[in-house]
What we know:
Elements: H1 2-24, H2 29-37, H3 41-73, H4 75-95, H5 99-111, H6 115-126, H7 132-158, H8 164-183, H9 203-211, H10 216-230, H11 232-245, H12 249-300, H13 304-315, H14 320-330, H15 337-367, H16 378-396
Helix pairs in contact: 1-6, 1-7, 1-8, 2-3, 3-4, 3-5, 3-15, 4-5, 4-6, 4-8, 6-7, 6-15, 7-12, 7-14, 9-10, 9-15, 10-14, 10-15, 10-16, 11-15, 12-13, 12-14, 12-16, 15-16
Amino acid sequence: xxxxxxxxxxxxxxxxxxxxxxxxxxxxxxDLIVELTGGPLSGAALWGGVLATSFAVMQxxxxxxxxxxxxxxxxxxxxxxxxLVMAADYLIMALxxxxxLLLAGRIVAGIxxxxxxxxxxxxxxxxxxxxxARNFGLIGAAFGLGFIAGPFLGSLLSTLGVRAPFWGAxxxxxxxxxxxxxxxxxxxxxxxxxxxxxRRANPFAAFRAIGSLPGLGRMLTVYLIYNVALHVYESVWAxxxxxxxGWTPFTIGMSLAVYGLAFTIVQAFLVGPATRRFGExxxxxxxxxxxxxxxxxxxxxxxxxxxxxxxxxAALGSVAGPAMQGIMSNATPDDQQGELxxxxxxxxxxxxxxxxxxxxxxxxxxxxPGAPVHLPGAPFALAxxxxxxxxxVFGLGRAGAPRPAP
Length: 406
């Protein structure tokens, strides 16, 4: 039992370090890109978009491959390999002498972005069915803590130089790799090991394989629309705050910190009680309803302080994600848990690719000079409409809801 507790600590630390690694480089990434390209900040912003998109595209294409590999060869080797590549990627960014080397590092990192995927599969392996949603919430809480800590650490390390945060992120990943090497037991046994099939190692075939399980086609559709809708926050929040309330970068950062803290509390302490008392299905509907209400309020909200306070309410809606993951995991056979998490990673990547273009395009249209209606909150109206679709598809199909796999 102590070894299993250590394994859970490692899994949560891995997810937190993944998030810290993302946030720790935020403060210096613009300066690094300017240094490598020799161009203006506007050009650096475009390169930043290319780097983020390339990572997401690779994650979409290769997430199911990694998930299938973990079902065949085990969670331990896949997780440790992912951490090794993560550490190497941060070293590449720390030493990169050209923007193309930076891009190559992001592509390789996206291909092997298996930490979150394999962490979720590992949690499913060691969790009783009734505890899976709660434990997925713990993973979300670890990510939230890392996302809060990352920019703070990045700001501190940036005082040592533009590349110092990358060295710090590499050290964290390498240290966790050593920890995992020493204590992480394998969870894929002969009972649940599944033969690897190249025909199922691409996102479209994996979608078909998981979607063919009873009720999961509908759940994958709901989860996809949900991800596109909820990426509205990271896509336009900074622009929305500046246009709607005249926020400064400091205020924008504070608002994100408030949300991140509330999100972490919800994931850590509310997901488990909610899903145990009300079940995953009603918890999903509750979360979707809260998200819908929050997006609807942000469309026309006129008070900046009220918006910051309301982000804490919006965080309550985050129970929907782990609840949906619990439904899908419980309806998936044990030998396909890695494949399922690979599909979930691909869906998340689709949201990261599609939503920014949709939401920023909507924001630009309704805030441009000569717009028929000046409405910085228009992207939240679009997100609210997508959430209505989620609720309808999920609610109307409950008669054919997924049932626990044997």
